[in-house]
Every structure is written in structure tokens, then in C-alpha cells.
């Protein structure tokens, strides 16, 4: 599979990343090489196998919905956030 | 440097003097193993990889995007360590977000290998391994997602232990690939690894993948004379450099002399492990790293017009090349139209990898394997991403199957570079790995100098 400019553009959008124009050719080449390599898995027959996988027996445990984190943590994160005001994160205006 | 075992018998006054000495030596050293000299309480100092939360420390995963972030709580391993008198002391350099095999992708610059400063220390826990090897730390914590504790330990001639998945809480470890990440230890000896692992292991309700198990004191119950059946994987060895093959043959002889039974096995080509790993790990990384938006923590881009631009600019400026490459690849394998062919396919192959290990463990207690196909490469020679991924061939299957493995130094090559090998155990048989490793350590008599 060849990663082309259209796919890269889609991946940039999904990833919220911009690849510099000068780097695009290089990253397309690298991603294409990696994708071609990982396609070696097509040599394996996996039709009979489960698509979910866990190394832990019994899967993810259920627990009571009880707050276990200190309320101070939230305040602490806010106090170190790039911009905050009145207990909220500040972002650029969404509606003009 | 004194061992962790020796540190346990020191008085608080003596420990305090040792801490001052480590701090002074580490600050004067130019390996760039330490990227921060933060300290917490009094106690036996343990160097922390820069992705483990220590309350009120700047903890940045070696990334520009986390500049300015201050950890609001302690990782569970930190709380547990402190109960035993071990305290966080300094931050170790690492590949950005633990994505790399050389520690060259850190925002803080490269770390040098203490055995040859023109070579890398390995990665991603390169700072932790280089510091322990250079006598700049008694012991360190790292994290191992695809070999990131074991491989730098092997390159630097120290002991690296990756526990069974679920044995050590991941609460407070910056997530790279959640189904593969485990916090591990980097120490001078196998016994020290057991002491530090004993201190940090245990069930944690804050980590839903943490396993419930009976706590057993490994360090004080090491059974060094226990004889085991150890499998060697013949077709793996032929792909490694001559130096590694020589060390492997030497270790096998020593294990036989120590009374262990060696059996010969083959495993499927490692190319499938590499492919599976780079699908699963990047898919999980793309998801985990979506949280870094420049708004809630870390560094925010300036001069932006709107929210979209804030996201794009903060992430594009904040992440380095390798992290970007893995996020793009992860979003590719997860995206509509490709999800079944890549991501689900890889999840299925994990069953095959696990089954293959289980077949060997029907007959063997342990597998002896190389850690890397060569000794530590020269700085600047690992620029091709796919070639770097391929060098993880011996370590990643262990993470994909969730197994415990310990890397320990065996000998040095003619250039004086350490060669490590790893012992791989059955899931939740971490104790047996330590028994075998202690036996091998005694048999090979590796000298760091």
C-alpha cells in the first residue's frame, strides 16, 4: 500500500498535526515503507482468531462508581494550565 | 557506587551523605543522563524516568509539549517505593514519550553511553541505564513498552527487569501503549532488581489492568541453586551479530555447568512480531497522545487565530519527528477502511504470538534470548525509522504476550562494549526469572570495569 498526499492529508487532520511542506516527501516515503513492511501479517492465517486480546484473565474488572481522586488534583492541574480563569481552561473564542 | 542492597544497611546520616555525593557527581557529569535534579523526601535515592509522575515535579516524557507541566500527584510506584524508604531523586533522560531505541529523540538532547561516549545508551530508558552504569545512581526506574528497560540495560552493562504485565501499577506512568507498557527496574545486580521490584509491585485499584496476586518476597527468597529447563531459540541467534552469538554460546555453556537443562526450540520469524508491535503500539499511542492539546497541560502555541489552529500548532510545535510519525501511523491503522486489515489483524496475531510462547513453556521454564542484534550503535546511525524498528526484534514479542523478562550483562566484546542477554519467563512467574537470572549472573561473573 502506498501512502499518497491525499492519505497524508487525511492523517494530518485525524492527528491534529501539520507536517511541514519540506518534510512531506520524506514522511510519505517512510510511512509507505513501514506500511509495506507491516503488511507481512497478511502471510498469516488469522480467520479463526478473536480480535480482542488481553493478557489478563477475566478481562477488565467492574468496580463501584466512587470518586477516588483527590479534588485537589483538578485544582492543581488548572493552576498550572497554560491559561485558566475562574476554574476553567481558557481557549480562543469559538464563536465570533 | 554502592548497591541498593548495601544502601539498605546504611544509617540515615550515611544515606544523606551519599545523596549529596550523587547529586554533585551527577551535576558535574556530561553524559546527559539526568535532565532534572529534583528531589523529594529523605531516603535511598532512586532515579526516575521522566514519564513517571512525582508530585510537584516537572515531568515531561522528554517532550517539548510537556514543558511547564507539573505533576499533580504521585504515581502508585512512588507511593509504594516511599513505604520502603526509597525516594524519587532526579529525572532521567528518555526518548520522547518512550518512542525510540536510542534516547536520541529526547527534547533534552542525546544521552551518551558511559562505555563509549560516541555510542548511544539505548532507549527509551537510556538516561536511567546510563546513570546506573556510570555510577551516577544506585538504581533507577524505567518503563518498558517494547524493550525500553531491557535494551538500554544491555547496551550499558546493567540489569533491566520488565515485570509481567499487570504486576506493577501503571497509574501515574505517562501512557504510550497501554496494553504493552510496564514500569521496570534498572539496577547494578539481579538482587537489587528483586529488591526494587518487591517495593513497587502489587495490585492497584487505580489501574484497571492491575492484576490481583499474592505478594511474595522475592529478594529474600532467591533460589540461586534451583535447576531449570531453559529453551534456546536456535533460529533467533543466527540473525544476531557474531559478538552476540559468542556471548550467547558462552551463557549457554555456563547455564549447563550450573546444572540447568538446555533444550532447543525454534520460533516464527520475528518480522511478524515487529509488524504486530508497530501496529498495536502506534494505534494506542495515537489514542493516548490525543490528550495533548495545548490547553490543559504543558506548552501552548502562541499567536493563534482560533481553537483549531491552537490544536494544530501546539501539537505540531510540541511533538518531535518520531512521535509525529507514530501518531500518523497509528491513526492510519485505526482509520476507517484500514482498521480491519491492520489493527484487528494485529490484535489477532497477538494470540498466535502468545500461543507460540505457551507451547515452549509446556516444556521449558525459561527462554534465553538476545536482547538486541548488536552492541550499542554509534550516535547518529539509527536515522532510518524502519531499520530502528527492526532492531527491536528480540524484545517486543515479550510485551505483546505480557511476559516477564530480565536482561543482564554477560560479557564485553573486543571494543569493550557490554553484551546483555534476556531470560523470559511464563506470565506471573516473575520469581523464577529472578532465580534463573541470579544463577546466570553468578555463572558468567560479569565485571563492569
Describe this structure in words.
The complex is a heterodimer of chains A (96) and B (449). Chain A has 96 residues and is mostly helical. Chain A has a domain at 5-42. Chain A has helices at 5-15, 21-38, 71-80, and strands at 84-85, 88-89. In chain A, strands 1-2 form a two-stranded antiparallel ribbon. Chain A is flat. Chain A starts with a helix and ends in a 7-residue tail after the last strand. The model of chain A has no long low-confidence stretch (mean pLDDT 92). With 449 residues, chain B is of the alpha/beta class. Chain B folds into 2 domains: 4-225 and 374-444, Alpha-Beta Complex (Amidase signature (AS) enzymes), CATH 3.90.1300.10; 270-353, no CATH class. Chain B is 37% helix and 14% strand. Chain B has 15 helices and 11 strands. An 11-stranded mixed sheet of chain B has the order 1-3-2-4-6-5-10-11-9-7-8, sandwiched between helices. In chain B, α6 (190-200) runs antiparallel to α15. The mean pLDDT of chain B is 97. Classes of the chains: A mainly alpha (96), B alpha/beta (449). At the A-B interface, α1, α2 and α3 of A face α9, α10, α11, α12 and α13 of B.
Q: What percent of residues of chain A adopt helix (DSSP H or I)? A: 40-55%
Total count of helical runs of at least 4 residues of chain B: 15
Query: In the residues of chain B, how many domains can be counted?
Result: 2
Element order of chain B: H for helix, E for strand: HHEEHEHEHEEHEHHEHHHHEHHEEH
- Along the chain, the helix and strand elements of chain A come as HHHEE
Number of helices of chain A: 3
Structural class category of chain A: mainly alpha
Give the C-alpha Rg of chain A: 22 Å
Structural class of chain B: alpha/beta
Return the average pLDDT of chain B rounded to an integer: 97
Biggest interface, chains and residues, is: A-B, 54 and 68 residues
Distance between the termini of chain B: 12 Å
Low-confidence stretches of chain A: none
Could you give a short account of the major beta sheet of chain A? Answer: 2 strands, antiparallel
Number of strands of chain A: 2
